[in-house]
UniProtKB/TrEMBL annotation:
Pfam families: FCD (PF07729), GntR (PF00392). GO terms for molecular function: DNA binding; DNA-binding transcription factor activity. PANTHER family: HTH-TYPE TRANSCRIPTIONAL REPRESSOR GLAR, TRANSCRIPTIONAL REGULATOR, GNTR FAMILY. This is Transcriptional regulator, GntR family. It comes from the Bacteria.
């Protein structure tokens, strides 16, 4: 028993684990649209739904305000950040700046293992996109997962954990709008990914950055065309 941790330390670890699980669940429910833009986040309801204390919920919601996924209303509590055309465009611009920079770093440093990761990520994404194009709309949430995995693979050799973490946060905020639009863009997005894949293997930074800009702007246009904002 000499190596046993003090009870309070063990309880803190359990609490941290539960808190992190709740954080990921609430964050995921906001990104997916299960918690809707502008929805009031009532602590007693969330306590029951996510199984954590009110104090833990306050910490989680304050943490989510730093990602602009939640808005703090002073004494009135919290609500899910609203969705707007201006915010969509702002998030798209932020994603482009971050991802373009990370692409340049990653293409320069990427080794054979990096190439293998890119190949694997594109294969998985392409398989899901083929299913969606064939009419299997149930794969949309799965597509979101593999879409991120592919874009992450492209920039994974950038050498900066901070850049990757910030990019993931912005990417999720951008994907939130895709999920609110509830519409897959179709052949265009699949062709964009094929071209980004080819340019990555050729280490064509300028070409990939130009394609990424087109890819993101086309995504914004598609979201707006659905009329759901």
């Amino acid at each position: 028993m000499a190596n046993a941790k003090p009870l309070h330390d063990a309880m803190d670890e359990i609490s941290d684990t539960v808190g992190e699980q709740a954080f990921r669940k609430i964050r995921g429910d906001i990104v997916s649209g299960d918690l809707k833009p502008g929805q009031k986040l009532k602590l007693e309801h969330l306590k029951s739904k996510y199984g954590v204390s009110v104090s833990t919920l306050r910490e989680i919601l304050n943490r989510l305000t730093t990602e602009d996924l939640v808005v703090a209303e002073g004494q009135r509590g919290f609500e899910v950040s609203p969705a707007s055309v201006d915010n969509l465009r702002e998030v798209g611009d932020l994603r482009l700046v971050l991802e373009n920079h990370a692409l340049a770093l990653s293409f320069a440093a990427g080794d054979l293992d990096w190439e293998a990761d890119v190949v694997a990520a594109h294969h998985k994404l392409s398989s899901i996109e083929k299913a969606l194009l064939a009419g299997d709309a149930n794969r949309t949430f799965e597509w979101i997962k593999y879409d991120f995995a592919f874009h992450h693979a492209l920039i994974s050799a950038c050498g900066s954990k901070s850049l990757l973490a910030i990019h993931q946060s912005i990417f999720d905020r951008f994907m939130r709008y895709h999920l609110l639009a509830a519409s897959f863009r179709g052949d265009g997005v699949s062709e964009d990914h094929k071209e980004l894949f080819r340019l990555a293997l050729e280490r064509d930074v300028a070409g990939a950055q130009a394609k990424l800009a087109q890819h993101i702007h086309s995504g914004i246009d598609h979201i707006l065309s659905t009329g759901r904002l």
